[in-house]
Prior knowledge:
DNA binding; 62% helix; five-stranded parallel beta sheet; transcription regulation; ADP binding
Amino acid sequence: MQVRLLGTIDxxxxxxxxxxxxxxxxxxxxxxxxxxxEVVSTDRIADVxxxxxxxxxxxxxLQRHVSHLRQVLGSRDAILARAPxxxxxxxxxxxxxxxxxxxxxxxxxATDRAAAVRHLREALALWRGRxxxxxxxxxxxxxxxxxxxxxxxxxxxxxxxxxxxxxxxxELIPDLERLTRDHPHDERFHAQLMVAQYRAGRPADALATYxxxxxxxxxxxxxxxxxxxxxxxxxxxxxxxxxxxxxPPVEVQAxxxxxxxxxxxxxxxxxxxxxxxxxxAGGSSGTAVVCAVTGPPGAGKTSLAxxxxxxxxxRFPDGQLYVNLRGFDPxxxxxxxxxxxxxxxxxxxxxxxxxxxxxxxxxxxYRSILNGRKVLIVLDNARDAAQxxxxxxxxxxxxxxxxxxxxxxPLVAAEGAHPFPVGPLTEAGSRxxxxxxxxxxxxxxxxxxxxxxxxxxxxLPLALAIVAxxxxxxxxxxLAAQAAQLRDAAGGLDPFDGGDPSTDVRAVFSWSYRALDxxxxxxxxxxxxHPGVDFAxxxxxxxxxxxxxxxxxxxxxxxxxxxxxxxxxxRLHDLLRSYAFEHVRPDDRPAAVRRLLDHYLQSARAAVLLxxxxxxxxxVPAPAAGVTPVALADRDRALAWFAAEHAALLAxxxxxxxxxxxxxxxxxxxxxxxxxxxxxxxxxxIATQTAALTALRRVGDRSAAAHTHRDLGRTFxxxxxxxxxxxxxxxxxxxxxxxxDVAGQARTxxxxxxxxQAQGDHRAALGHSGEAHRLFKLVGxxxxxxxxxxxxxxxxxxxxxxxxxxxxxxxALALLxxxxxxxxxxxxxxSIAYAHDQLGDHAAALRCYRRAVDSFARLGDRGAExxxxxxxxDSHAAAGEHDAAEAAWRTALAxxxxxxxxxxxxxRGRLRRPYxxxxxxxxxxxxxxxxxTG
Length: 934
């Protein structure tokens, strides 16, 4: 027998359909069938059947309904009495919903797409209409119906995706046109239709589909389509190759990570060191072998390590790992050991949600992964032993090569590393290197010129390789001319410390530099002032005070002085950066630094106001002439810009503080708070705000100091460091009072309220939230009136006044929607969801929580997104939907762990006690106290 729920409710016995008469009997059967094999309490069934209109005879009536249903099912044992209620005992696939779920699960496990399509079509054929169609309006069953409806949507989405991969785009278009008509706000169906139309040779129809959904979103929701759909429209317009049907994947045998950079062409010399490495790799040891390859800049340490690593890769069948630690970058941008560890865990495909928090725990996991494996690890350009230690394996079988300009004596003494000092090549090795690059005949023809080149280069492989590259581009020029240019250039350069062989490397750099025309040479010099790891063209243009520098950058790339390591992102080798920095003319330096700081300040200020238009604006210095800010069109591009420029912006704060640009430091730090907060970079937020506070004390700007105290206070509160938070917030409140800054006082009261609610003192928090609302009303700030009205409503909810909370938050939502404040609206959906949950309307709560999650995700506020996911899981648990609850909590945990967020432990606690949330009320989230950055 089988109970059918995917449409009208009935029963099938021996392939014969048996109707169930009466809505209440159908409700009883549905209440049992959505939990087959589980006891459903009589109280739950009665609530489903009668709701608040429970008759005095409900118990007897329920017994009669159960007796009738047993007759329909053809067995008295089909429904069994089990305290405290009844259980529907059906063998196997007892409901059509269970069959559908099984088929959809089988589709996800299928080894080929054709099989997955068959399973999905069988599953979708089981839907005969809206699930539980006869019992609409019963809250508990409505939630289940929504789940089954979402299951249908998932199956339709997945089926369309498989069919697109199978090349059925033309046949799929009518189905997707019907689905987009029926689901006008489902972006995934519209995206799939656009792809199908494009692949069917109908790009104009694909663009028309986008315009249609854009109008529907604007007319119905007052929103634009999401970034994925907007990016798809752009891809169609440019006929991006990624839209074409991909060829069948090539199957390869996975043998572990293979991260080594390209092998060094024409490597020569250091045969003794290579032999020693061979010997260590072939020996036996009770622990991992560590080799410390050390020497001066340009000695060829990396070339030696990479050359041997490629030669020995076959001895390490479980993979080869590589990271450039950038230990001697002139602007102190060394790779943090934790960042390198995360890269290695990525190489072994360790899921983010399986990674522990903290460097020590991640290093322990890394060592566990390497235990029993034979892996070669190259740690290039290390700063010191401390940077390397967390990256060392702990068991035999692995070999580590560390390269560094530091002698790494502590690593040799404590870890038993084998020292491999690398000095200059021999004269014979130097000639061999030139012969490998230029050909033996050309080198043999001019022995005296070759000897002079070798001497000028100090027998350093890097210098020799650069000279060889220049000579190779001029095959008809005699090597004597190259030698003369090196000799002449070397005479005018300041040497390094006495006896350092890299002196002649600077001569080689000088030769390349002097070959540039003056505009390119000037840009190269000024790039030495850039403090970041890499940069984009607008930053370079601002340094130079020019509207565009694309052509000049191409010149520097061709000259091998600058590398375009990603499209649109450039960087200098650390030695070249040092050389450029030393050659900046003193008169040029202050103006160039000012222009660069103006570039980042103007761009960051515009970007943060796109992310959160509710931020209070601050005065910034007028930009100097020649500054080129980045033009950012929307929130998505602002987020992407912050992500790309993250390291450069941090370095710019330090650059300003170290060059007497204190009035740039604080507004630049202010511009970073929203991005750092949303992405969970709280340590960096505190560091930049602390630098700002120091700068403000020097210039005596009390108003900006108040803002900075407030930003520090609310960040410490988020981290649970409430004593420090209170000190900063009280300092801000006092300063705003002295300055008669009513808006500043209002924002500080809002932040103090946030801090107090985080400590559980909701009554005191309500006082500050109310005062903030009063002050915002006094100054006429409607947006912040709405935000603090939401905060006040949410706090009333935390005090058990849920009806009042709902009224306040709904009023706040209407105003926020009118003002188009996406962030404030997202937090208010969370507050409204909480009120519905506490009032027992779980279906409404779930809808509102999902709105909040989607909104925060779209905005890029990952911390708030995680907070609401916790609440969404709690609401599912309270409704008895334990699988959905666990899925939401797991997603929250992954989000928090990626951010290093302290709420990760709360998510773990829910997953350890998955049913605890169902027994009590949901906790509410700090996301409801929206817009913490104020």
